[in-house]
Hints:
The chain is α/β, with parallel strands linked by helices and 184 residues long. The protein contains six helices and six strands; from the N terminus they run αββαβααβαββα.
Amino acid sequence: xxxxxxxxxxxxxxxxxxxxxxxxxxxxxxxxxxxxxxxxxxxxxxxxxxxxxxxxxxxxxxxxxxxxxxxxxxxxxxxxxxxxxxxxxxxxxxxxxxxxxxxxxxxxxxxxxxxxxxxxxxxxxxxxxxxxxxxxxxxxxxxxxxxxxxxxxxxxxxxxxxxxxxxxxxxxxxxxxxxxxxxx
Length: 184
């Protein structure tokens, strides 16, 4: 009798736990694929990229491969912005690049940085020693003495939320190209 009662209680606890996990999973991803995410439809953009280019929905955005050597030598004059992929961020935060970011005539966008933007513009601060970002931004940018960050919709890392984040940053880049300022 005790074993039947114990088995019944264990079954009930297991059913409740499975139900809670399923409900929680549904609530965290709910609406992520249903949100309004307009595709960037502005003018043509040329984006320099250190690392592999992201997969975006836009046909009017062209990625130009760059190296960190190109960044150091300021060989990015024919682009509207420069993106640096996550794998290159520790090196991109070295002191020799800080002045480039501070004086750049185009925005720099750091993809999926775990650290705050100061890691890139403060010559005294290494990537490892910089504060961990608590904002949850997927893209952080710096241009014309202004920092900006864009997070993923509902903080969910999905193909659609990442593409949405890129579409939003393309609009910011186009505005910076036309006005010389970052307007969010």
